[in-house]
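Fill in residues.
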């Protein structure tokens, strides 16, 4: 079988693969400062209030970095919501869904439409070097002493009983949750 327009077909295939690759490789732009400590990370809540992680020391912190254009992020948010809801009474565990769209209103509308109650934040400072990434979703879990105990790039099953138990254990001591 002889193709009538082989050059045009090759160009179209090349264009489609290049477009898909560019979409898949879309990166989150974050200013890098290697001398910034993780406790210096500042977040902005929906009311515009600036909160530093150092103010949350003594609590276990679950940070989930996500964006509305990120399909894996969207796919894991329902399980994050379930984990958040199941641990809502735990005063020593704080959750933060950190939107990376750099559009707090868009993220708030997204959460409201899906009835998510996870506390929503935007970045208020550069990401510390320990949290740098070019990919999301990313989840960072910080122990009560401020130590990053998990940095997981990619999806997490937040409904895992093991994860839930380890978060509870972290409220009591430094647990090993490296299985992620």
């Amino acid at each position: 079988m002889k193709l009538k327009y082989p050059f045009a077909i090759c160009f179209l295939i090349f264009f489609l693969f290049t477009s898909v690759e560019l979409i898949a490789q879309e990166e989150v732009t974050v200013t890098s400062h290697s001398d910034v400590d993780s406790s210096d990370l500042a977040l902005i809540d929906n009311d515009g209030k600036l909160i530093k992680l150092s103010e949350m020391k003594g609590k276990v912190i679950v940070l989930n970095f996500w964006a509305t254009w990120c399909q894996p992020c969207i796919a894991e948010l329902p399980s994050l919501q379930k984990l958040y809801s199941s641990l809502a009474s735990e005063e020593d565990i704080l959750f933060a869904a950190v939107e990376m769209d750099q559009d707090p209103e868009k993220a708030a509308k997204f959460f409201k439409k899906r009835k998510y109650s996870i506390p929503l934040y935007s970045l208020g400072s550069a990401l510390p070097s320990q949290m740098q990434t070019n990919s999301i979703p990313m989840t960072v879990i910080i122990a009560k002493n401020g130590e990053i105990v998990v940095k997981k790039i990619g999806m997490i099953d937040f409904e895992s009983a093991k994860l839930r138990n380890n978060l509870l254990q972290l409220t009591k001591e430094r647990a090993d949750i490296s299985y992620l």
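The chain has four helices and nine strands.
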